[in-house]
Amino acid sequence: MRRIGERAVVIGASMAGLLAARALADFYETVTVLDRDAFPVADIPRKGVPQGRHTHGLLSRGRSVIERFFPGWTDEVVAAGGVRGDIAADVNWVGHGVTIKNAPSDMIGLLAARPVLDGHVRRRLLALPNVRAIENCTVQGLVASADNKAIKGVRAKIGSIEQIIDADLVVDASGRGSSSPAWLEGLGYARPEEERIEIGIGYTTRVYRRRPGDLDGKLAVVIAGSGPNWRNGAMAYQAEDRWIVSIGGFFGDHAPDEELLFAAFAGSLPTSEIYDIVAHAEPLTDFITYRYPANLRRRYENLTDFPKGYLVVGDAICSFNPVYGQGMTVAAQEAALLQQCLEAGDADLARRFFAAARDAIDIPWDIAVGNDLRHPKVQGRRSLKVRFVNWYIGKLHLAARYDAQLAIAFLRVANLEAPPTLLLSPGNVLRVIRGNLVPGKPSRAAAGRTGDLSAEARRVKA
Ligand SMILES: Cc1cc2nc3c(=O)[nH]c(=O)nc-3n(C[C@H](O)[C@H](O)[C@H](O)COP(=O)(O)OP(=O)(O)OC[C@H]3O[C@@H](n4cnc5c(N)ncnc54)[C@H](O)[C@@H]3O)c2cc1C
User: Fold this and answer.
1) Can you tell me which atom of ligand 1 is nearest the CA of 12?
2) Distance CA 336, CA 22 (A)
3) Distance 179 CA to ligand 1 centre (A)
């Protein structure tokens, strides 16, 4: 691999920053990852990654990209209590109110507490001889050349000491709350245009005791919201004896952090797996909540003027409704794209990288936003394409209840392993048509759950 520069600096040591740093380590003499937090000694949640307390799963595409960066990483996570699982055989996927068929596939995902996933990436990264991290280091701004045409480093506060850290390349991986738009504006550049699709999602999360026979031995259930009540959630293996459950809904319809009402909310989901655990298993933690206001995309690729020596990655470019579980996989894909871009040198790097990232983000963005636009209160343009795709995917789900090939095709797209056009291949269209000619059982959602929490709570108590 070719050496491109002396020093690269990455702002943020969560998944996107760690993986970007791995890509940079092949091209820069030293790579320094800065984070405002101290890394916990054990793999437990930390302040800068609050979502780490909520259900996380790694899609098959993300797992294989990270495995390529750090061979043996999956085994290490499994040895630490995580579990690898067949995305199609070991996970129940519920969409449009129905569960698609389980079947063996070659898509292997990974389940573990989020801090465990990060911790194992971080330790592998910091074992590289040219990578180091500075903890308790809050980046406060950028240092630019006299004409503002190039970024030369960052201004940071390490503990209580302000310092300038020089760099040939600075990568912002500071997450959704990134200051890049403001920093760029301060240097005389335009802010990237932002697309926001408001969804007002809230998750309430609790960890429960897991027993081996739970969920028929499967490892997770993922429920994407559908009418009539649009509630959604996920329950995943977190460790041998732990389930993590996160459930919620749109626009303030959030699961209460009270035992009976939480169970009642779980009971109003279109399938009963989460309710069965919540109502009967031993809780191991208190409830915690998370508010997620909107899908958010910043269009750096459209800026005509951008400083040399600067990039933005991960949630700082695009953050998706978490129920689709795409964020870490997209961060991994971006790191792989950064590696490819650097193989061609650093000339025009920002333009090449943002164009490649745009192409990688387009599909997961369309999946998340397109599906969210099914909710009647979500504001956004419902193009003919969006309406057709949502109608077709609904029909596909109905057929995929019994058709393993369709279920796997859908999951290949949802796991970012195949383009959405796979679902429109003549063979798959035929299967969808055929599947909809066979009368199926009505779904629980279609059968209509009450959504009345007090009534459901009384039912739970009884
Ligand atoms: C509730 C929830 C559930 C999710 N579930 C999944 C899932 O199942 N699967 C999946 O793939 N994705 C999931 N995601 C998305 C996933 O968490 C993110 O996409 C992923 O963490 C990548 O984000 P990131 O590294 O870009 O930013 P973040 O994870 O937000 O990390 C930003 C980092 O930057 C640091 N930082 C911020 N500002 C500064 C500064 N000024 N100076 C120094 N350091 C700074 C922070 O301390 C932090 O370490 C979920 C998200 C949420 C909210």
Assistant:
1) 34
2) 9
3) 14
Q: Does the C-beta of 315 come closer than 6 Å to ligand 1?
A: yes
Ligand 1 centroid to 51 CA: how many Å?
Answer: 7
Q: Measure 126 CA to ligand 1 centroid, in angstroms.
A: 19
Query: How many domains are there within the chain?
Result: 1
Backbone angles phi, psi at 168, to 5 degrees: -85, -25
Pocket flag, ligand 1, residue 325 (CB < 6 Å): yes
C-beta of 84 in contact with ligand 1 (< 6 A): no
In a domain, 167, yes or no: yes
The answer to whether position 442 is within a domain reads no
What's the pLDDT band for 450 if we cut at 50, 70, 90? very low
Does the beta carbon of 54 lie inside 6 Å of ligand 1? yes
Q: What is the pLDDT of residue 442?
A: 44
What the block records as the tokens of 163 is: 């310092």
pLDDT average, residue stretch 148-164: 97
**The CA-based dihedral angle spanning residues 397, 206, 365, 351, taken in that order and rounded to the nearest 10 degrees:** -150
Residue 133 inside a domain? The answer is yes
173 lines ligand 1 (CB under 6 A): yes
Q: Rounded CA gap, 91 and 75, in Å? A: 20
Instruction: Identify the residue with better confidence: 256 or 462.
Output: 256
pLDDT confidence tier of residue 2, bands split at 50, 70 and 90: confident
In a domain, 245, yes or no: no
Which domain CATH number covers 38?
A: 3.50.50.60
**Domain, as residue range, for 140:** 5-86+113-195+302-361
pLDDT by residue (tens digit) across 281-297? 999 999 999 999 999 99
Mean pLDDT is lowest, of 112-126, 168-182, 369-383, 431-445, for 431-445
- Please work out whether the CB of residue 314 comes within 6 Å of at least one atom of ligand 1: yes
Kindly provide the b/e burial profile for residues 177-204, where b requires at least 16 CB atoms within 10 angstroms of the residue's own CB.
ebbbbebbeeeebeebeeeebbbbbbbb
Could you tell me which of 333, 335, 324 has the C-alpha nearest to residue 413? 324
Q: Which of 139, 206, 328 to mutate to test the pocket of ligand 1 (most atoms within 8 A of CB)?
A: 328
Task: Report the chain's mean pLDDT, rounded to a whole number.
Answer: 94
Determine the 3-state secondary structure of 210 from DSSP: coil
Model confidence over 228-255: pLDDT tens digits?
899 999 999 999 999 999 999 999 999 9
Cα(241) to centroid of ligand 1, in Å? 26
- Which ranges constitute the DSSP H helices of 51-154? 60-69, 73-79, 114-126
